[in-house]
Specification:
heteropentamer, A mainly alpha (103), B mainly alpha (633), C mainly alpha (495), D mainly alpha (488), E mainly alpha (163), B: 633 residues, mainly alpha, two-stranded antiparallel sheet, 28 helices, 76% helix, D: 488 residues, 2 domains, 2 strands
Chain lengths: 103, 633, 495, 488, 163
């Protein structure tokens, strides 16, 4: 069986879901952030695959993925900044302890 | 005669009411007498005009005058309610009765009510009542009639509760109003019913429809019964009789005027007014007669044992009203109204007598009286005349009308005749029981210390004179029909010579029978309460259950007030409804509100502050929505 | 277009509001005088309108004093005002009670400025409801009333005032919410918001069946009227509201329900009305009897009057859905009459309570000696409430009964009417019982020195009495006008 | 390719002013100037928007940048919101004295992001614009750097990132199906795919759902709403206001344009997401209102209330979906509601900022007796709350009528009935605040002062609320114009 | 099975393994390293998809920038000792993730993708350049991205600096 678009898409989906699981189940905020990065990467895989199989001559998908990387970088920067700020005030990066506000 | 004049008859007391309540009471309260004078003057005018109207009616062809209407309210295209007057023989007679008795009682009241703080109020109400009553007898359509009908009921309420600070008076007033209203419910229904079937409220039009046979059958019967229900309420006929004895809590002149002579007779008048309707319904007429006869004996039986002089007279009134109904039922307008006419005078007189006695002794309890014939001769004599008239002793007025009723009922309803005859005996007994106990023997009053300090005395002239005048009427009013004129005037009578009328009656057996029965009653009273040959106590002991039953008024008050209104409705059904309202209706509303708030609390607890939970919801949302689409899309 | 009478009448109270709001630190007396002045002016002007109202046969079915200006053109909504006989009577009622409510409030000392502002806004909203001929405008005015009511009850009220206020608001809101749904459906079915054009809507496909729209609208009005079982806000709100607000609440607000039923439910969907009438008539009878029965159990004077309103408004419902001309005239007259009678009763209850600080019937008694004027007027009011002839209560109830009994539209209406008439007896029961408990029997010592009504109060309650008697003695003053409004509606039912 | 720079002037000018603010911040001591400059920037930008208003619709960047009345309407809305927020921050910025320049600049930048969101018609640009506005808001949320603020920032960011990842996946799927990124082209491409129901192309279905989820996070509809209360509570109050208003509006702008343009035809497709939004709408408003009842913190309460309001707004969205292409009602209703909601909610928050700042508490109970302590603020807040309930004579009522109008028109009567009953529920908690302010006895007699800037802003918003409520005709027309472009 | 296929499978396994390691490894520092591995694997996947420029960019941006940033943050927060504990929602998260995966696979498999038969452009660098800046290019997002980065930098500074 030759590798096809579906393979890439399923791989992408799997990566996405692993990322999602990580984001929802880990207590360490930094790990959560990393999981989110995995999710974004998964999307990129899909985008590039689409680019390759659907519109091979127009590189929109690849460009899209490029932008996603930029956004990811920005998100990580801000996210880490917030985590550090939180760490300064709460001395923890445990997401389960971030429950000052509820109800 | 100018058309406006009949209007003035009932408007004149109305003006008096307005003047007293808007001018005299607020601004001249320190001259209370003024209100009395105003009332007497106003009713004097009415009285004068009533006589004038009577003369005009006598002269008029068909004994009726045409009075133009005033349009009151248009309720539909072409259908409007008019305010108009009907002036015929019946009206004329009633006008005389009402205005004369009222005038006399107003005069009497000046003495009786002397010094009462509510003096102007009393006269204001009395004016109002007289106005309504006069209007009632003249109204030419059902709505207008009903207006006055309720108006007199209102005045009755106000006057029974005149001494409102006495709980008994307030209760009695309320009871009177509500019980009569129960009857009026039927009356109102009948009005609606008649309008539905005929499209008119006009009484004369209804008469002609009934006579023409357009209005007939069950429709007519039901309408007639509805009207009779109103009449029964006002005239305290069984089973709506319970209010009248209690109504004696009002000032005695009020009892005399409203609860003896006029308003209670309005029921009888009402049936008479609608007699063409009753006439064409055998069933209705029979029911009127039966109820009347039964009420007569039923009330009389209770009158036998009462110790309150006014209550005795009150039961007598109910009984006599039953007589009138019987009269209407068995023979027609003329007989019933004739008794009404006579009864008005002697019964008013009896009440005034009672008032006079009370004025002297300060009590109505006959056990606290005695020997008053010596100190109060005028009262004594007039009372005796009235009592004899009531007992139906020849040739006093009561005899004539009662006799006619007996004769007619003997002809058509022998059973009712028997009841009526027994009633004659009872009537004679209870009224003479009062006479002997109050006026005979020695004075037994002990309770009222402040009265015993004074000498017992005859009432002032202002009270005595009206009594004397009434006594005169009580004696002779029956003679008006000696020639059959009165009956003929009311459309039902046979002409005869004056002497034949006066003496001829003695040639028949039936009058003798009633005279003998009445005589026996008087004799029994004499034996028990004057000579004490028979001990009343012993009799009482012998018939304990009967005595109790009578003195407890057959437990009707208990049945109505305690069991029906109290236990069943107010403390029974209505409690249930209130609970339903509070717990089921309102409770469910509050319950829903509380549940919503509780749900809000519970749901907000899901918001734990755990951001991963929030993330879970997002992911779950995606999956769930997709699944939904898969299954429902 | 001539002088904008209706706009002026409606917004005169708002002018007073603006003046009061702008005055720096006004004295309470000044506020009261301004309020009284403007409400009186509104009343006077409404009387002028009443006088100028064209009663000729040519005017049947015509809206008069019409004002129409585009408002929200996107949804075809207009600032569209006008009165016919039906609304005119209620406008007069509102301005009258608006003025009297100011008089009733003469003794208000707590935050008088806000109080009168709310009271005046309330009047404007009520007038707006009765004059609007555009559904959205109608709805707008309908909703405006809630805010002042909420504040008036919850700030100046007594007892569980906050609970009552919010209960009132939520009840009304649910009703008006459904009404909004109905209005929108109507709009999209027809493209029109003009009440006049919508009369007797020809059958057409709507989102939901006509009966559905009918009930959406009816629900809102049923809450207001109120119809059992949607009534439980009423005793609470009436009881806990300040006196003047109870007066307005019972006097005018309930009438919005009846008015809406006639103006919208019956007029727009005559056929549905005919179909549903039997059900509603039964509800009406339940209202009358159930209301009266529960009234008889009340121990709180104000609550008693409040419950009596439920019973009395039952007659309005009965009259409306008997669907005959006479019954509708009667129902309208009953609305007017109940407005002044219950208004009076609440004003008097307020007086009694202000002076004696007691509303519990078990602890009241013998006040007739201490406050004779109030006692007399209370009796008059009570007697009017129980439908004594020569008072407006009788005229209204009688015409309603006649109309219902002779109605040919509804099956079995006669039986229901008779049952309704039976309510009159129970009414007599509780009214007289109440009068007896409050005023009769031996005067109680604790009430010694309790004052009678003062001059402002007398002016106020005597005005009520005058109105009651005037309508009672000569109801044609109103019925002649009301009839003009009802006749075209009845024609719809006939068709 | 011509850049058509004039079309970009609103965004460009704003960007320039944002940079200017940052630069000025370095050198200037008098920080009030920064606010002035920001406002000036907003005014200038607004001026440019107005010059574009009424022109023919145009586009730049090959149809990726669309200048139509719809976009302009939203741009104006965001500018107004940003301006009011900046003015309202005047009493608040003392809390982070050091970073005022960044604060204003970030508000401006996020405004740019939102403006772009409303104006772009291409997947990548939409994504980036969304991230631009979001990231600025994440930062602003955590701006206070106290535990609550940081926590709020963290929650917002992490959940926002997850949501944007899902959105992105949705975009990827749509792109994969069509090979295009411009909305109009996507729409054309979809029509060429032979489909009869969505289940024929599960990827499209999933794409739509993932998109709805990503955007739904922005507008805070159930089940993507859970961040709202926590973030609202923790964020600096002016930012909460900004979030609740502008960010939400931006979400609606993009959803309306995206779904309408892309999935507008065929009808069954449109109907599908219409029903999706209708269902979410019903759940959203009910949940928002019911939970709001239980709140004791006013910011949280307004958070839930904004969820509920989003529910009402989605009625309009649903109507857009359910409606046939020809009609504008749903969208114009949406626009008018948004305008009204923006003013109203901002008004409410402005009052809250003023009050909380002084009493240093967001608890509703601490608002007791505000009616006498700060009558004007209390009055303004009351008016806004009344408008939120949807009572006259305020914008809220007209907005509700208008948007429910659309619902009824397109057969969503059930939804409208749920909506109106929800407004009744909402009365309970809104009036709860009103009650506390006017009925309760004040805890202290101390007056609550407020700056003139704040008072003026509050007065302006209240005036706006009233004007929209009493003479809405003109504004409804604007809303109608703004959506007409869609029909052509 | 071509070489490409083998490479794909290899990279797929590596990337998935690395991703799982990121999630499950208790040593957070090691997790970060596995993240780098994952990024590399994805870059490799890009190459299999003939996206050479992107692969380079992936390595530069992710491996070079993001990963370093993350590792820096790990150091800064001194949270190493706590490790990478699982939270309280592990099971539901697993179920949901599994569900989502199922949904996604279902969607991918059941959709008929319009695969283009044409061969892809290689090399891509110039093409990407013209896609970005050329006629009909994606200039707009690029410009927005610039602002985005500005905002992010601004924010990072504000948030990280002491009050």
């Amino acid at each position: 069986m030759s590798v096809s678009l579906e393979h890439y898409l399923i791989l992408s989906a799997l990566l996405f879901c692993i990322g999602l699981y990580g984001a929802l189940s880990r207590r360490n905020t930094i790990v959560i952030l990393m999981s989110i990065e995995i999710m974004l990467n998964a999307v990129n895989v899909a985008l590039v695959a689409f680019s390759r199989y659907i519109v091979p001559l127009v590189l929109t998908g690849q460009v899209f993925a490029l932008f996603v990387m930029v956004v990811a970088a920005a998100e990580v920067a801000v996210g880490l900044a917030i985590i550090i700020a939180l760490y300064r005030s709460r001395e923890t990066v445990d997401v389960e302890q971030a429950d000052l506000m509820k109800g | 005669m100018p058309h406006q004049v009949p209007w003035l008859i009932w408007l004149s007391p109305m003006f008096s009411f307005i003047i007293i309540s808007l001018i005299l009471r607020p601004f001249f309260n320190h001259h209370p007498k003024l209100s009395g004078y105003t009332t007497i003057a106003a009713i004097g005018i009415s009285c004068f005009l009533s006589f004038w109207v009577l003369i005009e009616v006598l002269k008029a062809p068909g004994h009726r005058l045409e009075i133009p209407d005033i349009q009151w309210v248009v309720i539909e295209d072409g259908i409007s309610i008019h305010l108009g007057l009907i002036v015929d023989a019946l009206t004329a007679v009633m006008l005389i009765v009402v205005s004369v008795v009222s005038l006399l009682i107003q005069i009497y009241s000046q003495g009786y009510m002397h010094g009462d703080p509510g003096y102007p109020r009393y006269y204001a109400f009395m004016s109002l009542f007289t106005g309504f009553m006069l209007g009632l007898v003249m109204a030419d359509n059902l709505v207008f009639l009903f207006l006055f009908w309720e108006g007199v009921g209102l005045c009755s309420y106000l006057l029974i509760g005149f001494w409102f600070h006495r709980p008994a008076a307030a209760n009695a007033a309320k009871k009177a109003f509500i019980v009569t209203r129960l009857g009026d419910f039927g009356f109102l229904a009948a009005i609606l019913f008649l309008f539905y079937h005929t499209g008119t409220f006009d009484i004369e039009r209804l008469h002609s429809l009934a006579i023409a046979g357009t209005l007939a059958g069950t429709t007519l019967t039901w309408a007639a019964l509805g009207i009779f229900s109103g009449a029964a309420g006002k005239s305290a006929q069984f089973p709506l009789h319970t209010w009248l004895p209690d109504a004696m809590e009002g000032p005695t002149p009020v009892s005399a005027l409203i609860h003896a002579a006029t308003m209670v007779a309005a029921g009888v008048f009402l049936v008479a007014r609608f007699f063409p309707l009753f006439e064409h319904s055998k069933v209705a007429l029979t029911i009127v007669a039966v109820i009347g006869a039964f009420t007569a004996i039923f009330a009389a039986s209770m009158g036998l044992v009462m110790n309150d002089i006014k209550r005795v007279v009150a039961y007598s009134t109910i009984s006599q009203l039953g007589y009138m109904m019987l009269g209407l039922g068995v023979s027609g307008v003329a007989v019933g109204i004739f008794h009404l006419f006579n009864h008005a005078f002697f019964k008013a007189l009896l009440f005034l007598g009672a008032g006079s006695v009370n004025h002297a002794t300060g009590t109505f309890d006959i056990r606290e009286m005695g020997g008053l014939r010596r100190v109060m001769p005028w009262t004594y004599i007039t009372f005796i005349i009235a009592a004899l008239s009531l007992a139906g002793i020849y040739p006093l007025s009561g005899f004539w009308s009662k006799d006619e009723i007996l004769i007619y009922s003997f002809k058509t309803q022998p059973f009712l005749f028997t009841l009526a005859l027994i009633t004659v005996f009872m009537t004679a007994f209870y009224i003479f029981r009062v006479v002997f106990v109050v006026f005979g023997g020695e004075y037994r009053g002990t309770k009222l210390a402040h009265h015993s300090e004074h000498k017992l005395h005859e009432s002032p002239a202002v009270m005595v004179i009206p009594m004397v005048i009434l006594a005169f009427f009580s004696a002779v009013s029956g003679w008006l029909n000696l020639t059959g004129n009165f009956g003929e005037f009311l459309g039902h009578g046979e002409a005869r010579g004056l002497l034949e009328g006066f003496f001829g009656i003695l040639g028949k057996p039936l009058p003798w029978l009633s005279l003998i029965v009445a005589g026996l009653g008087i004799y029994l009273a004499y034996a028990m309460y004057s000579t004490r040959r028979i001990s009343p106590e012993a009799v009482g002991r012998t018939f304990v259950p009967l005595y109790t039953t009578l003195s407890r008024k057959y437990w009707f008050d208990e049945l109505y007030e305690r069991i029906f209104v109290g236990k069943t409705l107010v403390n029974g059904l209505f409690v249930g409804l209130e609970a339903f309202d509070t717990y089921a209706v309102d409770g469910s509303v509050n319950g829903i509100a509380d549940k919503t708030i509780a749900t809000g609390r519970a749901l907000s607890r899901v918001q734990t502050g755990q951001l991963q939970l929030y993330g879970l919801f997002i992911a779950m949302g995606i999956v769930a929505i997709t699944i939904c689409f898969y299954f429902f899309g | 277009m001539d002088f904008p009478y209706l706009t002026t009448v409606i917004f005169l109270p708002v002018v007073a509001v603006v003046i009061i709001a702008l005055l720096p630190q006004p004295k309470p007396k000044v506020i009261k005088f301004i309020s009284a002045l403007f409400t009186l002016a509104a009343f006077a002007l409404s009387l002028v309108v009443f006088y100028l109202f064209d009663r000729s046969p040519g005017a049947i079915g015509q809206m008069q004093f019409v004002e129409k200006v585009p408002w929200i053109s996107a949804i075809n909504a207009f600032y569209h005002l006008g009165v016919d006989g039906l609304s005119l009577s209620l406008v007069v009622l509102t301005t009258l009670l608006g003025f009297l409510a100011v008089l009733v409030s003469w003794k208000i000392e707590l935050r008088p400025r806000e109080y009168f502002i709310w009271l005046l806004i309330l009047e404007t909203s009520l007038l707006g409801v009765f004059c609007s001929l555009d559904l959205v405008l109608f709805f707008l005015f309908w909703e405006v009333e809630l805010v002042p009511m909420y504040f008036l009850i919850s700030i100046w009220g007594t007892g569980r005032r906050e609970y009552s206020a919010i209960k009132y608001v939520v009840y009304t809101l649910i009703g008006s919410a459904l009404m909004l749904g109905g209005i929108l459906v109507i709009y999209f079915t027809t493209g029109s918001l003009n009440m006049l054009e919508l009369a007797d809507l020809a059958p057409m496909t709507a989102v939901i069946p006509f009966a559905g729209i009918f009930f959406l609208l009816l629900f809102a009005f049923a809450v207001k009227l109120p119809v059992i079982p949607l009534h439980t806000w009423l005793p609470d709100a009436h009881t806990d509201a300040p006196t003047a607000v109870s007066v307005i609440l019972a006097g005018v607000l309930l009438k919005m329900g009846g008015y809406g039923m006639i103006r919208l439910c019956v007029t727009i969907f005559p056929n549905v009305a005919v179909t549903c009438a039997p059900l509603l008539v039964i509800l009406a009878v339940v209202n009358v009897l159930y209301g009266a029965a529960v009234t008889l159990r009340q121990k709180d004077l104000k609550r008693l009057i409040a419950y009596s309103s439920i019973s009395h408004m039952g007659y309005v419902l009965l009259g409306i859905f008997a669907l005959s001309q006479v019954s509708l005239v009667g129902a309208t007259l009953q609305m007017f009459s109940h407005g002044i009678i219950t208004g009076l009763l609440f004003a008097l209850v307020g007086l009694v309570y202000d002076k004696s600080h007691e509303r519990n019937l078990d602890r009241l008694g013998g006040l007739a000696r201490q406050m004779p004027v109030i006692a007399v007027v209370f009796s008059v009011g009570g007697l009017a409430a129980l439908g004594l002839p020569s008072t407006s209560g009788f005229a209204a109830e009688f015409i309603t009964f006649v109309g219902c009994f002779t109605s040919t539209v509804v099956e079995g209406i006669r039986l229901y009417t008779i049952l309704g008439v039976l309510g009159v007896v129970i009414t007599a029961g509780y009214i007289l019982w109440m009068l007896q408990r409050v005023f009769y029997s031996e005067p109680l010592e604790k009430f010694n020195g309790v004052p009678d009504a003062d001059n402002v109060e007398k002016l106020c309650i005597f005005s009520f009495v005058a109105a009651i008697m005037a309508i009672g003695l000569y109801p044609a003053i109103l019925t002649d006008v009301i009839r003009l409004g009802i006749m075209p509606i009845i024609k719809l039912i006939g068709s | 390719m011509s850049l058509k720079l004039e079309l970009l002037t609103p965004e460009l000018s704003l960007l320039i002013f944002a940079l200017l603010v940052i630069l000025l911040d370095l050198g200037i001591k008098q920080k009030k100037v920064l606010a002035g400059v920001s406002i000036l920037g907003l005014l200038v930008s607004g001026g440019f928007v107005l010059t574009l208003w009424g022109r023919e619709s145009a586009s730049a960047f090959n149809g990726m940048f669309l200048v139509d009345p719809f976009a302009l309407f939203f741009k104006l809305l965001f500018l107004i919101a940003a301006g009011l927020v900046i003015l309202a921050s005047q009493d608040y910025v003392s809390k982070f004295a050091r970073f005022q320049g960044e604060y204003y600049a970030l508000i401006l930048i996020s405004a740019i992001g939102m403006m772009l969101l409303a104006t772009t018609g291409e997947l990548i640009s939409i994504y980036i614009a969304l991230e631009l506005s979001s990231i600025s808001l994440y930062i602003l949320t955590g701006f206070l750097k106290d535990p609550k603020s940081s926590e709020a920032g963290l929650k917002y960011l992490l959940l926002g990132a997850v949501a944007s990842a899902t959105l992105l996946y949705g975009m990827a799927l749509v792109f994969g199906l069509t090979g295009k990124t411009r909305l109009t082209e996507i729409a054309q491409a979809i029509q060429t795919i032979p489909l009869t129901t969505l289940l024929d192309s599960p990827a499209l279905l999933l794409g739509i759902i993932l998109l709805a989820c990503g955007f739904g996070f922005k507008i805070a509809c159930v089940p993507f709403q859970m961040w709202v209360p926590d973030v609202y509570e923790g964020a600096p109050t002016p930012i909460t206001a900004y979030l609740s208003v502008a960010s939400k509006a931006a979400g609606f702008a993009v959803i309306a344009r995206f779904f309408y343009t892309t999935f507008g035809v065929p009808d069954w497709l449109s109907l599908n997401w219409g029903i999706l939004f209708a269902s979410l709408s019903a759940i959203t408003m009910t949940l928002g209102n019911v939970i709001a009842i239980a709140q004791t913190n006013i910011k949280r309460m307004l958070g839930y209330s904004s969820i509920a309001q989003a529910g009402y707004l989605m009625v309009g969205l649903a109507a857009v979906g359910v409606a046939s292409m020809a009609d504008t009602l749903g969208r114009s209703g949406l626009l008018f509601f948004l305008a009204s909601y923006t003013l109203t909610n901002l008004g409410a928050f402005i009052a809250i900022i003023a009050i909380s700042n002084k009493i240093d508490s967001d608890l509703i109970d601490d608002y007791t007796g505000m009616g006498s302590r700060a009558p004007l603020l209390a009055l303004g807040l009351t008016l806004c709350l009344i408008s939120l309930i949807g009572l006259p004579p305020t914008a809220g009522l007209i907005a509700k009528i208008y948007i429910f109008n659309a619902g009824v028109h397109y057969g969503l009567l059930w939804l409208v009935v749920i909506g109106v009953i929800n407004s009744c529920i909402s009365a309970y908690y809104y009036l709860g605040v009103v009650k506390v302010m006017w009925l309760g006895a004040p805890v202290s007699e101390e007056k609550v002062p407020s700056s003139w800037a704040l008072r003026i802003v509050l007065a302006l918003t209240c005036l706006g609320v009233l004007v929209l409520g009493i003479i809405p005709g003109k504004f409804v027309q604007i809303a109608e114009t703004a959506v007409r472009i869609f029909t052509s | 099975m071509t070489v490409l296929d083998i490479v794909f499978w290899l990279l797929a396994v590596i990337s998935i393994g690395a991703a799982l390691a990121v999630v499950f490894l208790q040593n957070i520092f090691r997790a970060a390293l596995f993240l780098v591995l994952c990024f590399f694997a994805v870059a490799g996947l890009f190459i299999t998809l003939q996206a050479d420029f992107l692969a380079v960019a992936q390595v530069l941006i992710y491996v070079g920038a993001i990963s370093i940033l993350i590792i820096l943050a790990i150091m800064l927060t001194r949270e190493m000792w706590r490790g990478n504990p699982g939270g309280r929602f592990q099971l539901p998260a697993f179920i949901i993730a599994l569900g989502l995966f199922g949904v996604m696979v279902w969607a991918v498999i059941n959709t008929s993708w319009q695969i283009s038969a044409e061969l892809p452009l290689v090399p891509t660098t110039a093409a990407i350049g013209s896609r970005l800046f050329g006629e009909g290019g994606l200039l707009l997002p690029l410009e927005i991205a610039a602002v985005l980065l500005l905002a992010a930098i601004l924010g990072a500074i504000v948030l990280v600096r002491e009050k």
